[in-house]
Write a structure and sequence with these properties.
Layout (H helix, E strand, L loop, with lengths): L5 H9 L13 E6 L2 E7 L5 E6 L10 H12 L4 H10 L7 H32 L3 E3 L14 E3 L1
Antiparallel strand pairs: 1-2, 2-3, 4-5
Helix pairs in contact: 2-4
This protein binds zinc ion.
Length: 152
Amino acid sequence: MYLLTDSCLVSLLADIPVSCRCGEKPKPTKKRVGSAVTVNWICDCGKTVKSLASQLALRYGSFLGNFMLMASTILSGNNYQKVALLAKFINLGLPHRTTFQKIQGYFVAPTVEQYWSNIQASAIEETRATNVVISATKGSFPREGTSGQCTQ
Ligand SMILES: [Zn+2]
């Protein structure tokens, strides 16, 4: 993952030779999509000659970096407001809060819950193989070797 300033991006784009079959040389058009940027070279004849994106595209028009940023916000113990403030300070694009909430609801929370369930199941399975002592003494702790029942 990288941070790239606009001036460096413009410099990189200037080095990409792009020309249309009609003979024109279209200029790049940038569009910010959260923390990603897409670049399209659209010719005056209407043809999109070349397209680039700064991040791997996922389904439904989302980008991997945006997804990772939103998922990592909660997983690192932060919240959207804090990360949004950080992004504002460095003029970093950020997906909208509703996108953050959708990613949390559809992907992060179910994954964390499944992970937690797996840990619980594993702990229960480990405990199942251990002998457990249950005290039959009411109101006091059993002394060693006195009361108790062994169960599985
Ligand atoms: Zn053209």
